[in-house]
């Protein structure tokens, strides 16, 4: 449909213009600063051979909201969201294996790359 074509084109333009790469616990991630979206945003830039996760983030209600997505079988987004929420937020976090989220106080670890636990979870 025309609406779906528009959404796909808009997602492609946004993703290809605004993504950046980071590493979390040795996992390569592709990141976009956008809220109220889903993994379809990454369709034009997602490569599961290159990246472990897709991540979106945005600031709302004095906290950063982060969403994690993956199509890979070796990544459990719910575990990662819980661990990141525990280290950088007030706990909580979680969701589904392939799509999860959490809220944190700072995203420095996301921008600069970082660790959320001492050992790699993969």
Automatic annotation (TrEMBL):
Sequence ranges assigned to domain DHHA1 in this UniProt record: 56-106
Sample GO molecular function, one term: nucleic acid binding
SUPFAM superfamilies: DHH phosphoesterases
Coiled-coil regions, chain positions: none
Protein name: DHHA1 domain-containing protein
């Amino acid at each position: 449909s025309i609406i779906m074509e528009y959404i796909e084109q808009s997602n492609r333009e946004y993703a290809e213009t605004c993504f950046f790469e980071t590493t979390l616990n040795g996992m390569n991630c592709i990141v976009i600063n956008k809220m109220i979206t889903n993994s379809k945003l990454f369709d034009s830039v997602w490569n599961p051979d290159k990246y472990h996760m897709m991540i979106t983030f945005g600031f709302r209600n004095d906290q950063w909201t982060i969403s994690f997505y993956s199509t890979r079988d070796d990544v459990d987004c719910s575990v990662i969201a819980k661990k990141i929420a525990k280290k950088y937020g007030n706990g909580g976090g979680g969701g589904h294996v392939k799509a999860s989220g959490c809220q944190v106080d700072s995203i420095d670890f996301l921008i600069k790359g970082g660790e959320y636990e001492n050992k790699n979870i993969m």
